[in-house]
Please model this.
Amino acid sequence: MGSENNILRVNNLQTSFFIDGGHEIKAVDGVTFDVPEGKTLGIVGESGSGKSITALSILKLIDSPGKIKGGEINLKGENLVDKTEKAMRKIRGNTISMIFQEPMTSLNPTYTVGQQIRESYKIHQGLGKRESTEKVIEMLKLVGIPSPEKRINQYPFELSGGMRQRVMIAMALACNPELLIADEPTTALDVTIQAQILELIKELQDELGMSVIMITHDLGVVAETCDFVAVMYCGKVVEYAEVKTLFKNPRHPYTVGLLKSLPRSDIDQLELIPIKGTVPSPDNMPEGCSFAPRCPFATELCHDHLPDLLEIGDGEQIRCWIYTDDWDGDPEVKVYEP
Amino acid sequence: MLTYILRRLIQLIPVLFGVTLFVFLLMHLTPGNPAQLMAGEQAPQEVIDRIENRLGLNDPLPVQYVRFLGNVVQLDFGTSMRSNLPVMDEIRYKFFVTIELAIYSTLLSVFIGIIAGIVSAVRQYTFSDIAIMFVALFGLSMPNFWLGLMLMQWFSINLGWFPPTGWGSASQVVLPVITLGTAGAAVIARMTRSSMLEVISQDYIRTARAKGVRERVIIYRHALKNALIPVVTVLGLQFGTLLSGTVLTEQVFAINGMGRYVIDSIMARDFPAVQASIIIISVMFVFVNLIVDISYRFLNKRIDLNG
Ligand SMILES: Nc1ncnc2c1ncn2[C@@H]1O[C@H](COP(=O)(O)OP(=O)(O)O)[C@@H](O)[C@H]1O
Ligand SMILES: [Mg+2]
Model:
């Protein structure tokens, strides 16, 4: 893939939790992806695959007993892993902003909406109350909150879930960040509100020209909102591609499985096929490819050895033995048949 | 908020009625004739009759109660049986001594308790945390009269830093306030710690971090306000314990306050004095709880809607 215009490049990120005196849980173990400027990268994967920990690692918000063990997080050429806490504070909410899955609990219940958004202006732009109030109202208007002059003095409990998520978005975008990380921003919302919030993020992206990382467990959301996609499984990226390519020609057996479990209008497929088996638990990771126990094509090689994430032409990356010269199974194997 | 305070004040009326009624009946339902008590064991019948007539003790009880209430409203609690001085004159000074003792001790509890609780929570499982929680447990399990005696032994008698008894000068205040404030500080420290730990793991704290807020501001602005909500409730409950604590503390340090006065009055069956003390202490308790409730609502905006 081209390296010219990437706002963020994450390379082999590893984040682990050390519990009960040294026992290691590798929550993120080899995540690599690029976020091209002005584009949206989707990170998709089942619950527990390490999406949120990846996002929090980018902002270096991993609390003990968690720790970023290795890898690089390059923001416009600067490696965030080496940055001090003080330097990170200047980046958080300013260059990179984040919104979370739970709008009901993500706002402080004891401060008004206005106070909470104003804080961003105070921290990053040194604005006083009067100057920032105008900007807060503007922001609330931008995210489609009616009568913002009144809302500004309300407490979070006075707002619906959808409204709170809009407030979160207003707060995240207050200082015009270059990258917005949205961690399942619609999972906790009603279906009708979900579409509105996704639409809003897309509109604001076009208007403000920022890049977005859209984290979701729903390939449908990826299809609607993303330009690129990284598929995660057990803390690793197993496939990275342009969204069009991925949907047309998925390569990793796990991606194929995900697609098959998605209702699609273009194919006359009414029957959803769930992936067989269950996700291995973090303390019982297979030695080889973590998907091998559930993979219909897995060979001895897959069970015993972990494949690398390899580029296979045109910016696509894949972590699967089938696409290597070492593949010891059926050379004519067809992972995906449309 | 203002209507809330007004409504709470109106709600106090029946409570105060109850207290006065209780105190009134206390005198009339306890065995023994009050007039006889006042006059003394060997007083002739005509003296007793005269006292009964003067105090209207032969009127029907409801009439007596209304008269009693009328006097209480004017802060007239009659004359002490021991000294024959108006009870109010005796109590006025003692009341402020006890109020001072209670306020200083509460301030000590709140400041030390909250600061210790925050330090403990922020440095969970470190040496400071363990040390603070150990001291808190110690302070909590130590009876306060014992703590008072120990402090007196060490700092007055052995070291001579503070006078062992009395009240008024700054040096006399120190030991009684520590004696009375320690248990409260321990309770508040433990409460603040657990409340703080719970709040720190909330989603909105992560939001604040993601906004670039510095850690100090997160603790004192974002977390503390939420963490204090349960602490304020504990503070209200703690005040009752504190009031009873003043009785022992005043006894230990020979302080001329309400606590000692109540005990002495009960021992002497000085009814007017007992009545006055109980009413004043109850009113104080009720108002402190009102203040606690108001600050609770001030911190917790959520309950403004349904109240
Ligand atoms: N605080 C923690 N302590 C220990 N393990 C954790 C912690 N947070 C996350 N993990 C581990 O990291 C894995 C990935 O979590 P997460 O990134 O939240 O998944 P998701 O893809 O659903 O967002 C989880 O399966 C869990 O085992
Ligand atoms: Mg998650």
The mean pLDDT of chain B is 89. Chain B touches chain A through 20 residues (CB under 8 Å).
